[in-house]
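Researcher: Last one for today. Full complex below.
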Amino acid sequence: MSESFDFREVFLNLDLLARGAKLTVLLWSFAFGLGVGLLLGCARMSRARWLSWPAMAYVEIFRNTPVLVQLVWFYYAFPVLTGLQMAAFTAAALASRSTRRPIAPRSGAAASPASRAASGKPVAPSAWAGGC
Amino acid sequence: MRYEWDFSPVFRDVPRLLEGLINTLKLSGASLVGGLIIGLVLALLRLSGRRLLAWPAVAFIEFFRNTPPLVHFFWIFYALPIVSGLTLQPLAAAAIALSVQSGAFFAEIYRAGIVSVERGQWEAGKAIGMSAPTLMRRIILPIALRRTITPLTKRSFELVKTTALAATLAYGELLYQAMVITSKSFRPLELYTTIAVIFFALLFTASQVMRRVEAVAARATR
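Model: Here's the assembly. Have a good evening.
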């Protein structure tokens, strides 16, 4: 019993689907755009423990829990804690920007040869300017 | 605003959460085995050198790598029965979707490992008269697999986290059980925090164990 495909419903609702696609792109740009990952990566590389340990905890917590659990947590549990009811989009943006990105700059920075950071040092006064 | 934490609904329903944990592990295990096998087959097809085999494999891999897993879940659970007349249980649908989806990712990891094996190994194997399948099985794959332990592990953790999506098919894994308990107790904060902690403990422990395994494997190859 195979039913024939009927895509009419898809075409009739193109505007709704387009709105969905717009939100997807918007969320995506939030996840990348806030630069949280870069900051975390730098904090994680820092030699100061009060900076690197919280960054590490943050990274490990969000890397080791499912995104759907984070979404549900931010939308249903977070408001209970703070009394702050947020829009679905805000919750999604919060959850999506917290995932996975943090490690990227760290592994990138760790992967670049030590000589590059060292060569930055004579020119730049701080490790920060040398590329974190 | 002061919030009174109350974990009693969590403790009252421990068996339910345990059942959820077992279901999560069941789905993870089944999809992991399925995904590793599908991935290996796809990688070998892609590297077969025959266009007739390689191109469909490439199309398959790219399709599943570039579409969200939730869409696969819905398609297999809601759309497949209409096309094929085959109705699947939530566990089966989720396991198939996850196996196929992670298989596509595993395939690329295997491929990277196989391609990374030096040409000299191939030539040496051929020189002593090994057939291509034997060469692949005895020489290339063991080297490639040892090199890909780290990315395979990482991807497996992604898989375990993706199992939470099965809650949308009303499969009784951890997140779904938490939703059920929340709907009777109205304690979302405690429940969702608890399962986040469970997932964290599970994956963090596993990642520490795998770090050891990787270190041992790295020492063995030296």
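Confidence is low (pLDDT under 50) at residues 100-105 of chain A. The radius of gyration of chain A is 21 Å.
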